[in-house]
Fold each of these.
Amino acid sequence: MRHVLAAPDFRDGFLEMLPACVGLIPFGLVCGVGAAAAGADFAAAMGMSAIIFSGAAQILASQLLAAGAPIAVVVLTCAVLGLRFLMYSAAMAPALSVLSARWQRTIAFLLTDQAFAASIRKFDAGRDPRRGALHFAGGGSALWATWQVDNAVGYFAGNVIPASWSLDFTVPLCFLALLAPALKSVPTIVAAAVAGVAVLALEALPMRLNLVVAGVIGIVAGTFVETLRERWKAR
Amino acid sequence: MEGALKLWIVILAVGALNYASRLSFIAFFARRTMSPLLARALRYVPAAMLAALIVPMIITPAGGPLPLNPKIPAAIMAGVVAWHTKSSLKTMIAGMVALWILQAILARIG
């Protein structure tokens, strides 16, 4: 443990991630506020941030629970949202294949959108994968540790800030900050637009199932459009 | 069911499923390659799911859509800032300031 923390690559990864950690402060605060609004006690709020460790899933779970959705729907909706980790996992797998199972399990736990985006290049061919792993673990640890602080502060702030500030609006703003920069290709825009329309069209579905159903419809639409475009180009 | 128990079941179930997704190809299917169709579909998970989450929060604030819903223009403004800056802090500031200004204007004229 100590030699890991003292390794230069771990330290570099940790320090290089700090600007991203600062950028995530508002998101973490909102997650804590959301947990408080959903009626979580402090232990459960910290359980969410420490164990789920995914802002979007934490907010989604808080909101669905506050809306009275059953456990199965909450878990299903969060699981579909979490499918993106399969993509990150597959992208990281070749570089990690030579590492020990313990390293693999550690890195998988710290695998988030931010850590993936920041560290995937560090696993480029020609580099020692152990150094890449240390770098990733450093960045992931910085994210995890600051995330817990953000969530804890947000949890207490949520009980103090007056409702007239419309702080609930920060939730869609957090998601917009993730979504808008991703809208770079036609199929992605189609996926988002179709899901956005479908979620309203399906509002009559019980137990807030419209979220997960609309999400799946959007995923299918994006995949379909990309396939169509590929066929079109091939002709 | 009691709220606290329900919450902890969700935490553990979502935590386990997320961890399984994170670990999937790193550990369980390390020797397999992902099918091209699955790889393609997964690329659209963030955009589709985020859009499905955002839209109801903006368009239907308790009581149905209003013709003068300040959240819609505020969200559009925030979306433009997000697209240009990729910064969650700037997106949040732009969106909240826009919302507060619009709410103040609506309160004046309403």
Note: Residues 2-165 of chain A form one domain.
Amino acid sequence: MFPSLTQVLETLFNGLMSGQITLAIGKSMGRILLGFTIAIIVGLILGYFIWRYKLVEDTLGFVVTALQSIPSIVWFPLAIIWFGLNDFSILFIVTIGATWTMTVNATSGFKNVPQLYQRVAKVYGSSGIHFLRTVILPASVPQIISGLRIAWAFSWRALMAGELLGGGGGLGQLLEMGRSLGQMDLVISVMIIIAIIGTIVDNVVFSRLERNVEIKWGIRKRA
Amino acid sequence: MYLTIEKIQKSFVNDRKENVKVLDGINLNVKKGSFVSIVGPSGCGKSTLLYLVAGLDKADSGEIRVDGELVSKPGPERVVVFQEAGLFPWLTVLENVTYGLNLKKMPKEEAKAKALDVLKMVHLSKYVNSYPHELSGGMKQRVSIARALVMEPDILLMDEPFSALDEQTRMVLHKELLDIWRKTKVTIFFITHNIREAVLLSEEVVVFATRPGRIKEIIPVPTMKDGVTPDSVTLNTEQRILSILQDEIEKVLKEEMGDDYSFKTDHLHRGDSGDMGSHI
């Protein structure tokens, strides 16, 4: 059941050329980008309310911490019943996988904005939306970025699991197809693609983003 | 009188849920364009008073008026220079300085021109596009002074602005601050625990007593016509303030180190228990 290296590379090359793998990549990336974006927005908004209102913190804040410990694939059976076995269910678990982590990180980012920055802004007359946009958000950027990184990892795993079970195209389904056809070279090709995408996003996109912010802020010295 | 502080009372609730009186019946008048310092031992409520004037905090009772208007919230006519510069690390020096002007809805070009002028006044023209982490402590504090001055405030509130700096930098900034004050005629309300600094810079030194914070004495600093105070006068005034503060310092130390501690050197402290009945 172990295909040769040349066979794997051949399938990988053909898959990329014929569009079978490229199409699946496109489909998966489209889903995760949509789900991830929704999760970031919802996470920031929930984080804002938890930070701003004590009552929300005592109620919703606690629930979020509990929800965060549920692996997102656990939501899948519920999602299938609610939305059916379709794209929407996969999108749901991708989103929910990232939302809670994002919420927790956004909350702690907002909470850790130094009192000094807040006082300075108030002295110059900043308040409301302006205060949020020019002080609270930028000051919590480092924490938000590390939140993004974890949130991405969660939704990437949720996406693969969802596609594997739910179908509807994408890399996960291609894996499942390879399994049912007994085509191990295809399975391993897809695994290689998954690893490459994961590495690029984590080590190139997020690491670079984090480093640039840290250098700009003076937390880390330029190498 | 320009800045009037009347019958200010302020208390806090501490960790042990006790009510602690921080300021007790503060009355103070400050003339327009003057330079007033407040000195006192740590914890005497001098910073609290500054926050009240800034509008960052509210008094329990009493009122603060600037030019007849009641202070109720922070405003760009009363800006604060904090102990730490508090520059936003995500903005360049120029963007930090124009932060307040943008809030005033000043046109971008005008704001930039103004900021560049003020940055020139604090000798930072070369660092306009640097980020705060690229500057030294003294430079950061100069940016934060520029950020305050660019607002053309009526009152500049300074909360121990130089206490985190090294001696040389502090001396340079003293001179620069005096130059700026003479040039702009801004009223300066300066908090410090450094008596020499207060005497060197200001026209009037307000000495605070502690627990609860109240004004013990107001000491004018005599200056010559050219604005320079002779060293003998400075030293004399310094000694006078120190002797007033001595009791206060002793009060703080006794609370920290126990009742038999004595700070005064010219007075041998003896507790009752060590007194062999000489009073009989």
Note: Residues 266-271 of chain B have pLDDT under 50 and may be disordered.
